[in-house]
Structures are given as C-alpha cells and as structure tokens.
Amino acid sequence: xxxxxxxIGLICILMLSACSNKKEEVMKKESVTTNEEAVTLQQTGTxxxxxxxxxxxxxxxxxxxTILPAKLSxxxxxxxxxxxxxxxxxxNKQDRNKKYFVDEVTEEYDKxxxxxxxxxxxxxxxxxxxxxxxKDGKERAEIVFSDEQEHNITNFIxxxxxxxxxxxxxxxxxATKELLFSMKTDGSDVKVLFDSxxxxxxxxxxxxxxxxxxxxxxxxxxxxxxxxxxxxxKEGQMSKVFEANxxxxxxxxxxxxxxxxxxxxxxxxxxxxxxxxxxSPECVSFAIYNDQIFIKQVEDxxxxxxxxxxxxxxxxPVIADIYSPxxxxxxxxxxxxxxxxxxxxSVFYTEPKKEQETxxxxxxxxxxxxxxxxxxxxxxxxxxTHRGEISISTLExxxxxxxxxxxxxxxxxxxxxxxxxxxxxxxxQNADMLSRIVSNPGMLDQLLAYxxxxxxxxxxEGGYYDYTVEVEGNKVHVKNSSVEADINFExxxxxxxxxxxxxxxxxxxxx
Length: 511
Known about the structure:
- The chain has 511 residues and is mainly β.
- The protein is built from 7 helices and 34 strands.
- The protein has a 5-stranded antiparallel beta sheet with strand order 29-31-32-33-34. Strands 2-3-4-5 form a 4-stranded antiparallel beta sheet, with no helix packed on it. Strands 6-7-8-9 form a 4-stranded antiparallel beta sheet, with no helix packed on it.
- Strand 24 (309-310) and strand 25 form a beta hairpin.
- It starts with a strand and ends in a 6-residue tail after the last strand.
- The model is unreliable at 1-56 and 348-366 (pLDDT under 50).
C-alpha cells in the first residue's frame, strides 16, 4: 500500500485556529447513460439499501427551524447530498456513509448548481431545469411543468410537497423578468405567486413558521429601495415586512432575522424591529448553519478576537463567493482557470479522523490501489503532455475534472504527489503533511526551515497554486515569481521521500 494523505479541499488561511483540522472524504466520477446504471460508490445499491423512515426535517437539526433554498448541499439526520458542479452524490449517514452517484452534467446542460430533498426523493437544478431522482440514483427524470411552458429556474425551495421557485421568464421584445412560482413536486398545479410591474425579485427565499419570505428591489421617489416580503402559505396572504437600503443576504434563524444592509450584518425580530448591527467588519454574504456563522468579507481581513461570535455562534470567514455549509464542513466553488471547482474545509472537527490504511474487497474505490494507479497514470500523461513542466494549479484542476471531483489527494507513490505534498505542507504550515515525505523524524526540522522562503501569507493558500514544477528523474525544480529551488527525492519502497534541497532564488513575503 502506498503512503498517502487525502486532504479535502482548500483550507481557508483565515480560519480560526480551533477549527483547522481537515475532514477526509472522497467522491467518484462515473459516466451515466441510463437510470439503471446509477450505482453506489461502494457497491451496487438496492431499494432496500435506501429505505428509511420519514426524513427528519433539515430545519430541526441545523438551520434553526427555517427551511432554506436548495444549495450545493442538503443534509438531514440520515442523508447528506452534495454536488461538485459536474456530478451529484448522496451519502447515507446511517449506513457507514455509503455513497451513491446520482447524476452528472452532459453537453446539453450546464452545472448542477443546487440540491435538496423531500422524503426518498432528491430534487436538483441542472442548468436551469429541475430534475428529481431517488437517493440511490434510480428513477431519475426531468420535472415536466403542467402549464407546458419553458421556465428558466434560478432558485428554488421545497416545502411540504410543493416547490417554490424563481424563474427568469422571457417576454416579447427580448424582455426578461424574474417571477415567483409554485408547483407540486410532480410538476402539476403551476401558479404565479409574485409578478409586480415595478418590483424585481432579488432571489433570497426562506420558509419559517409556514411563511415564505423573499426580497425585491424597486424604485421609490427616484431612489432604489429593497424590501422583504412574506407570504402566508396557509392563508395565501402576502404583505411587505419592511424596506431597506442595499439589502443583501437574508436568513431567519431561531425566529430572528439576520440580513446584510450596506455591507453590514444586522439582526432583528422577523418583523424588522429591534434592529442591531451584529458585527462591525463589512461583509457581502453570510450563512448560518448548525450554530455557526460564515461570512464573506468585503476584504479578506480576518475577524478580530473580540468579534469571533454572535449570540454564542462562532464566526468563520470564507474566501469563496459560492458556498454551502454542512454539519462537518464548508463546501465552496472556487474559480480555477475559468472553471468552478468544488473544495471543502472542515470547521467542526477538533480531532482528525482515523485514516483507512487498506481498501477491502467491495470497499471504497478511492481507497483502492486501482484509484492510486489512475492518478499516477494521469501524472505521467500530464508530464508527457507538458514536457515535464506543469503548474500546480493546472495539476490540481486536471485531477479534479478527470478523477477526484474537487477533492485534493496527496499520494506519495509518485514524485508529483510527493512534490505537491512538500509544497502544500510548506505554504500552509502543515508539519503533519511534511512528515509523510521524510524518511526519518530528524529531517522534518530541515524541511520546516524552508517554510519562510516558500510561504507567502498574503497569497491564497500561502501561494501554493502559484508554483510550477519541472521533473527530471528524481529531481524536481520548483519556482514561482519569488522562489526557485532544486529538490531531490529518493524512492524507498513504493514512496518518494525528500532527500535534500537547494534554494537558488528567494524573496520572502513579510506581510
């Protein structure tokens, strides 16, 4: 078995120190042509495998009694659903985290942007169309609207067998406008709920206390005004809650309203009264999940020690524009070479999970020798294609698109994998990772001495993605705009270990 280290996603350099341990997880990339070919990632599933009691509502566990719109992930007591943009997966939390491959993007459709669930069914947005499937990937089908109209859906939320969705509708003269609709989960009973001649839907949807909340934008007395509206789902009555200036993200959590106005995070009663500013740093987006607040700041400046919690909920800054928390990690889309790639960071574990050292028969493909050989084969192909020289960003992107679905792998059975391990360990101050490529503990201190030369704190991931590597035998030349070094590895058994290094150019980032 080759020495390996699997690290899920990008570790936010601004993360609170108590939340820095990584969660290990895997995804499988399969080709899908028919519903019958959708299989579990561990072994072929049966209908009995996914039979379950009625789902515990997501709101009861993680979202403070509020139903949220579909996002990159959905979670309840029994299941975790998530998309990496190109593929959709489910994971049975009550059955040893057995994973199922549900669907993938084809040429006809854009990304799989969001997913949610109701009972045994998964509902997801593929491009601008709604699809559904059983949690094991069977009975997959596009939802056909009973009004026989084409709807370009941008956001949707699911509640009690009803889908509420925002659609960008086309009108004569190339005019477009977003409208709020409802329909049953089988596509029947399509109704327009909100179509104002003067107001534009912003896109946020929340359901709390059997009431749908959404936001709009309109002109009032020559000024742009935003508003929060509510629709009583039992009585059908609609009313305006309050008006605001430059209203951003909105979320109801434990019967309190959190919202961004003018790049500031506020909280208030649901009716808008008793409004107070929650934190002083400016932010452009936020999400609350499992008593944790995630914020995307206007500038990635970190959070002061005196402002690391709100109402007893820890605050974690994130760097991604598109993100979705789960009970164990934060999933996010990062733009890499013009394409969105899924990454994740653990913010809840305080102890590392035990690493599975061997792959059992019928076990996880991503813990198998076959998978390792696929990665090593890809490395050889990339080195040949790029004539022995390749950037880390290109390498990670090719791995993600062709094999790993957004997860990062640091496998030391190939010299490229050991080089990645070395660079990531130095740029992210990860001594545990560096320990995987030293043949004796005394060499770890030698490696750590190079950290100041290789790490650039002001750059994303300490500058990890800015490096280019050139391989010649057991020697690797690494460089970026500030550092050049020759690194020698030696192969011991099935793994490549650090031997020595000579730095020929260095300019240390003192920020």
